[in-house]
Automatic annotation (TrEMBL):
Protein's name in the database: Histidine kinase
Organism domain of life: Bacteria
InterPro entries named in the record: DUF6446 (IPR045616)
Name of one Pfam family that matches: DUF6446
Keywords for this protein: Membrane, Transmembrane, Transmembrane helix
Transmembrane domains' residue ranges: 6-24
Length: 174
């Protein structure tokens, strides 16, 4: 009889721990951004980020990771104007957002990037060390923003030597 009780106790503890980990990953750290950053794209001419026309911006973020930022917006700017003025992003892969942030569908965005229905632009390089802000815009004006690791970030976080092509990492004293 005591073996059954121990087994039941282990199952209850495992289920509770699993539910708690799920909650922490999907809900606990994310917060809706009350005043989202303006949407910016990196100019081909200056190499600096420039704000674009963006309406109805909704965003979420978390302090626990630099790649948890997601945003959705609308813009009247055409693909023709955007491609002549702003840098395209190479290797853009949207990161999955929590299900409750339903305006951001990473699978739909990824498929649209592959088919050309959406274009990915560099929002800002190294918004944090090794992390670029990427902006994808559909032909109909729907836009999405996320942050992803760049080459320097991937190397820095997997322990590989970053090399001379990467910017110097700021010493934070930690």
């Amino acid at each position: 009889m005591s073996g059954k009780l121990v087994g039941i106790a282990i199952m209850i503890i495992a289920l509770t721990a699993g539910a708690w980990m799920y909650y922490l990953q999907v809900y606990a750290f994310y917060e809706e951004v009350q005043t989202p950053d303006p949407v910016a794209l990196t100019s081909v001419a200056t190499g600096a980020p420039e704000d674009i026309i963006a309406d109805a911006i909704t965003a979420i973020d978390a302090d626990s990771s630099p790649i948890r930022y997601r945003a959705c917006f609308e813009t009247p700017m055409s693909h023709a104007l955007l491609t002549e003025t702003y840098e395209l992003a190479v290797g853009a892969e949207p990161l999955v957002a929590p299900d409750w942030f339903d305006c951001f569908d990473a699978q739909e965005i990824g498929e649209a990037l592959q088919t050309g229905e959406a274009l990915a632009f560099l929002g800002q390089e190294n918004i944090e060390y090794g992390v670029d802000r990427i902006v994808a815009i559909f032909e109909d004006g729907r836009g999405y923003v996320w942050q992803q690791l760049n080459d320097c970030g991937r190397k820095a976080y997997d322990g590989t030597q970053v090399g001379p092509d990467c910017p110097a990492r700021e010493n934070t004293g930690n």
